[in-house]
Amino acid sequence: MKMSKRTKALAISENVKRHVAQRDSINGIPCCVWCGKPGQPWCHIMKRSQGGMGIETNIVTLCPDCHRKFDDSTERPKIMQF
Fold first, then answer.
1. Are 9 and 24 in contact (CB under 8 A)?
2. d(CA 34, CA 51)
3. Which residues contact 38 (CB under 8 A, 6 or more apart)?
4. Scanning 41, 47, 58, 79, which has the fewest C-beta atoms within 10 Å of its C-beta?
5. At residue 35, what are phi and psi to the nearest 5 degrees?
6. From CA 12, how far away is CA 79, in angstroms rounded?
7. 8 vs 26: CA distance, rounded Å
8. CB-hemisphere CA count at 13 Å for 58?
9. Higher pLDDT, residue 3 or 59
10. By 3-state DSSP, what share of the chain in percent is helix, strand and coil, each rounded to 5?
11. What is the pTM of this model?
């Protein structure tokens, strides 16, 4: 199945994941930029639903707890100060 241009632009490529993991790592381990726990570099800063692209400058590493807070709570502005 072929992806639409929009779907492709919003997706996070393996290359972007690798670069963000390296950027957000401590001693080679990708870590949450907010709390420092191990995490995965797959959080869109600008939500995909709002057109957030899958590019390095829009992706950040967050642990599952901080990712949930980032997406589903009023703490998003506070977390954005990383």
1. no
2. 23
3. 29, 30, 31, 32, 63
4. 47
5. -110, -15
6. 21
7. 30
8. 15
9. 59
10. 45, 20, 40
11. 0.81
